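Journal club side-thread
Mid-discussion, someone asked how the predicted structure for our own chain would compare to the paper's figures. Pasting it here so we can look after the session.
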Amino acid sequence: MKIANIDLGDRPVMLAPMEDVTDRSFRLICREQGASMVYTEFVSADALIRDIPSTVRKLSIDPAERPTAIQIYGREVEPMVEAARIVEQAAPDILDINFGCPVKKVAGKGAGAGMLRDIPKMLSITRAVVDAVKLPVTVKTRLGWDHDSRIIVELAEQLQDCGIAALTVHGRTRSQMYTGNADWEMIARVKENPRLKIPLIGNGDITSPELALQAFDRYGVDGVMIGRASIGAPWIFNDVSRVVHGSDRAPLSISDRFNLLRRQIIESVDRIDEYRGILHIRRHLAASPLFKGISHFRETRIKMLQADTLDSLMEILAQVEQMLLSAPACDN
């Protein structure tokens, strides 16, 4: 699959953009584990124009993580164009426009998935951004605002006509948020449209290698994007690559997986500071499947998520790792 002149290979599997998750360290780890391309946390156009330091830092890309897409969001044409030009100076491989974020603080203000209620403005923003930069521009969006306005088949054509180089569709409406099941049949309808010529990337509920393979074989997408299933489990890209691409990558051992979590913790602390770095990483620890199925784990889990020093957190992880290594084999 190619996005403009960027060759992602056959059946690429990508890391989805996620706020407070896809920082540079996590992106690099996911690339090392087999992700074909990674996306930054989404970047507010307004905050970027105001030169907010925490937003500007999101534009930092490690050469080893490429290809990388920087994703921006906003609700007005001029700020989105100005932000796109700022992003272009950071030299990502791709500029992605977020028309899919469903959270109230974004969609409720008309940005992200909120644009699904104002298609003319969505198209105006897309055309203007495409015209403003030389980077390949892509879009990520949803099926529609709600069940009665699932307009994605027609919208995909309209976005293509604006000049985007690829489209990612999350198989839910904005009203669904992250509830219910992603509708991959609807994503397949987008792909089956003979007038759609750009690559289509499917997103939503890809939690295993088998589901990723099904997305390609049954629904015909050109690429797959994995989001929440990677939180606390960047090795999912290793697992998917072995099934989807037939790679000879070895599955990661329990100790390998713990070492990746330790690396995330250390790099988060180094990037921010000890207290806030640990706060940032708690989301990964809370979501990690590594701890599922451990008997009588509740008290230890609370201690792990309340740890506020690097030494105490590392000590708890070492205890849990030893607990798993000495326990009878189980599916984690």
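Post-session note: The chain has a mean pLDDT of 95.
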